[in-house]
Amino acid sequence: MDSVLQVQNLTKRYTRSHLGRTTVSRGVDDLTFSVRQGEVFGLLGLNGSGKTTTLKLILGLLFPTSGEVKLWGGPAQSGEVRKRIGYLPEVPYFYRNLTPVEVLRLYGTLSQMDAALVTSRTAEVLKLVKMDHAAKKPMREFSKGMLQRIGLAQALLHDPDFLVLDEPVTGLDPLGIRQSRELVTELNKRGKTILFSSHSISELERLAHRVAILSDGKLVRLIEESDWRDHPGRLEEIFIDTLQKSGAAL
């Protein structure tokens, strides 16, 4: 099966200088993995394990200290490659006085989409994320969960082939979580390749085909769906056992 994403020996270290002292801290260390065409791939780890850093390196929002990221076999920084990616940050930020229609028009314009296509896609994605009822309401009236859905709508606006979702169920109530799960499943059925990080082990257990466990910036285990399929709660057991063996502080 072809790979959409190839991460090879990816390392990120941060260097900071203060009062003549230089400190080096770890972001991620020597990560190597790939994401196959058409799969849902999950990143799982404790806070500070390197999940968000990994996603930002893949997206080109951070530059690696060493190693490389390839998408569809080419450089991740390519403009043509970026047009095929949709990204939902953990905490999406929007101009709160705008309506969803206005903010999606803004993002469509920035992405150099045709105006007529932006209009038609806006209606489609707002319906898809179940926010069409609030299409013309100012977003200052929205809850955190509603803003999260608008974030997902902007990630889907240009109909990307590859979705990168950072904690996609953050701020959602139980109904919203279920709707998000159904949406990810539907998008995957439509052929979208999806990479997402989550604190919710149960969501990863239900959605992912493979899961990479990160600890202290390192990939400590890569597991297949067959390792937990038909055994509810098994992924949590694997996660905790892996962290204990890696020496992580629990």
Assembly form of the protein: single chain
Mean pLDDT over all positions: 90
Strand residue content:
25-35%
Q: Name the poorly predicted regions.
A: none
CATH superfamily of the largest domain: P-loop containing nucleotide triphosphate hydrolases
Q: What is the tally of beta strands?
A: 10
Content-based structural category = alpha/beta
Please tell me what the overall shape is. Answer: globular
Instruction: Please describe the biggest sheet, giving its number of strands, its sense, and whether it closes into a barrel.
Output: 6 strands, mixed
Tally of contiguous helical segments: 8
Number of domains: 2
**Class of the largest domain in CATH?**
Alpha Beta
Spatially, the strands of the biggest sheet line up as 6-7-8-3-9-10
Give the ordered list of helices and strands: EEEHEEHEHHHEHEHEEH
Would you kindly provide a written description of the structure presented here, covering whatever features stand out?
By secondary structure, the protein is α/β, with parallel strands linked by helices. It folds into two domains: 3-84 and 161-246, Rossmann fold (3-Layer(aba) Sandwich); 92-158, no CATH class. 35% of the residues lie in helices and 29% in strands. The chain contains eight helices and ten strands. It has a six-stranded mixed sheet, sandwiched between helices. Strand 4 and strand 5 form a beta hairpin. Helix 3 crosses helix 4 and helix 4 (115-128) packs across helix 5 (144-156). It is globular and about 50 Å long. The chain starts with a strand and ends with a helix. The mean pLDDT is 90.
